[in-house]
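Why show two proteins at once? Because comparison is the fastest way to build intuition. When a single record is shown, students tend to memorize it. When two are placed side by side, the eye starts asking what differs. So, the first record is below.
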Amino acid sequence: MTNDIVLHLDHASAEDLHEVLWLVGEHIAAGAPIPAMPNQTSDRLAQIIRSLADALGKGHPYS
């Protein structure tokens, strides 16, 4: 039996997730602020967070 959680992402959402994770890591390492992202990107990332929260049984903290 496995406890894996699998999220299926469309290509644009996967690109956004990759970009934001990379930006956060780079900006934290450099001590620089994280730039604002376009609304469409933010909306796609919010959906990923909601899907992950559902999969973890955590609900929707920002609904």
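Second record. Ask yourself what differs from the first in the token line.
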Amino acid sequence: MFDPDIAPSGTLLGLLQRGRGDGTLHALAAPRAEALAALHHCVLRDPRRDWQVENRSLYYARLCRELRADLDEIEQHLFHPDDLLDTAEERTGLALSVLGHLTSYGRHDALLLLRRYAATGANWAWALDELALRDDDTGLRALGPAVLDRFPRTPEGDAELAAAARGAYEPRPWRLWADDPVHGTRVRAAQERSAFDRWQRQLRPSGPRPGWSVHDVLQWAQEEHDASPGARRSDAAARCLAAVAGPEDRPELLAAAASGPDAARAAALRHLAETGDPEVLDLIEAAATGPAPELVTQAALTAFERMRSIAALDRARLWAQRPDALGDAAAAMLACRGGQYDSGLVLAALRRTVRGEGPDAQTLWALVEGAGRLSIGCAAPVLRHIYRETSSSHLRGLAAHALAATDPSFAAGFAVECLWDCEESTRELAARQAATADSRVMDQLRRLAADPAEEAEVQTAVRSRFGPPGGGPTTA
């Protein structure tokens, strides 16, 4: 995850970076050169805060098709010398996904670019997965020699080949290459090795194993943390404690949770929270608010967030007004599991978080969902602000769902632009709720219904808006 440079929400570039429906509408109304410049900026400099969660590729591919964009800039980006130096998937993944969707729309030049990059590019595995979904057998078979030549015929190269075959998101190319008279023997050997390696790992799991007592588990967790601070063995230790701890071990666990070494304390806190120990909430408060290392503080907050007891909810109502991380966790718990009488606390936390941390704060995800779940009508203004300003399309989608439950103007307002949104769940919501008084709505619903790249859930929602044959569309 990283923080990209996001333009203001009122600009064309800012709208497109966020993946908002208004971005497409403004781009189609803007001068073509300006729209193409903003589009290429987004495709070549991935604007997503978390590229593994947020969608943009279909959104940008559709705009490429509408603007009849050529692929020269994408080609230059893919085959730039930086491709040899920066091999991270984030640099080229979005551009490759856009090419994949353009291939589905019949752009032969996009198909040729994907084939060329799969043969020579650093992020070849991503390009190959795109082709596996869209290319024909002849095209995929022709790529076999170029891909296999990346792996030297040495024990190390064969091991890397087996790992690549095992990690492929789409196995279709590997199955075709396994039948190749020239390369099939090597590919089949790699597939067999990857299957054997998986079986061997399951049969003989590697790694240290703690002894079979609470003391041994806590000691192992601390030793592993001291040796590798980033390994987070405290989580594994907590799972082990669930198997070995008995009532007679409670004093030792309470002592570890109160003042033990960092990793042992984190493991004990999580275990006591999961078993609902009556003293754990006081221990969590002390760990989360006192002078404790980050490992212990985060473990305390995580342990609290996972609790499901009535006692935890009662304590959350006391903590929700705190202006710190424990207050945030408490407000999030009330948003997810509280009752209607917790609406005031959730709304106050929502407003406080937006004022203090802005529209991209991680805590907002739970609070926005909670505002919708509890139907907090007074939250509509701040939800509209989050919808407009956040750079996370996932959070914007949550805000849209919350607005649908709290804002009577949603169907005639934001729901219309949501039909062009980058997130499929947001488009699905809009397809069900957008008011058809706007002439653009029916046109876009028909486009979505006819688009072969559209998700099935969205198309099902679109079809629900049309009545039986001859009955006309339903209205909102």
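One difference worth noting in the second protein: The chain is about 70% helix and 0% strand.
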